[in-house]
Amino acid sequence: VLVNNVPVDALAVIINRARLVRFNSTASPPRVWAESGVTLNDIAQRAARLSLAGFEWASTVPGSVGGAVYGNAGAFDGDMAGNLASVELIHPQRGRESWLVDKMAYEYRSSILKREHQPVVILDAELHLEHGETERIREKMREFNNRRRNTQPPGASMGSMFKNPPGDFAGRLIEAAGLKGKRIGNAEISTKHANFFINHGDTKAADVLALIELAKKTVLDQFNVKLE
C-alpha cells in the first residue's frame, strides 16, 4: 500500500467516537463547541432546537466536524470558513495547539492542513452561530434537504466527486462530455447528476478510480479543463 507515495505494510482504520457537544447560547455571538467525531447534521438539528441559526446548510452534509474543518466542507452558500471560530489540534512535534480560523487559510474546499498535508489530528472545533426562530430554521433545513433529494441521486456514493472549477460546474462538464451513465464494473456516473459516482454493490476501488481518470481525461480533452 502507498501512503503519500511511501510504501507501508498496513493501514489503521480509526473510528472517531469523540462526540461531545456543548452550546453556549448566552455568548455573543452564540457558539457551539464540538469534538471532531460529531456529525454536522447532529449539530444542525440540536442548534435548531435551541433556536440557533447559521448552520442550516450543514444539515445536508454527511460528514463529521473533523473532516469538515479539514476540507472546508460546505453547501448552499455556507461553509466551515463562515462558521469556524477556532480549532484545537495536536501535532506530533509541537503538541496540542489552538488555531483561530484565519490560520486555516481557507479556500474553496481546502485548508492549509489539506494543501500542505500537515500531520495533525483535529480534536475539536468551536463554531459561531446566531439567534433565530426555530420554525424558520427548520423550514430552511427542509428546503435544503428537498433540493438535495431533487437534484442528487440516491444510493451509495462519496458525494460530489470533483470540485467545481472556477466559473463552471464539474457535473455540467462531465455531462457535456457524454459520460452520464458510463459504467465500469459496478461503478456508474449517475444519470441524475454527473458529479456523483454510484456504487451499485461489490464495487472495486479500481473501478471507481478508472471512472475518475476517464472523466478527467475526457473533460480535459474536450474542454481543456482539469478537474480536481
Description of the molecule:
This protein has seven helices and 14 strands. The protein is an alpha+beta fold.
Alpha-carbon Rg, integer: 19 Å
Our measurement of the CA-to-CA distance between the termini, rounded to an integer number of angstroms, reads 23 Å
- The overall pLDDT average reads 94
Global outline: globular
Give a topology summary.
Layout: E1 2-3, E2 6-7, E3 21-24, E4 31-35, H1 40-49, E5 52-53, H2 65-71, E6 74-75, E7 78-79, H3 80-83, E8 84-91, E9 95-100, H4 112-116, E10 121-128, E11 130-131, H5 134-151, H6 170-176, E12 183-184, E13 187-189, E14 197-199, H7 205-223
Antiparallel strand pairs: 1-2, 3-4, 4-10, 5-11, 6-7, 8-9, 8-10, 12-13, 13-14
List the keywords.
228 residues; 5-stranded antiparallel beta sheet; alpha+beta; single chain; 3-stranded antiparallel beta sheet; 31% helix
Task: Give a concise summary.
This protein is of the alpha+beta class and 228 residues long. 31% of the residues lie in helices and 22% in strands.
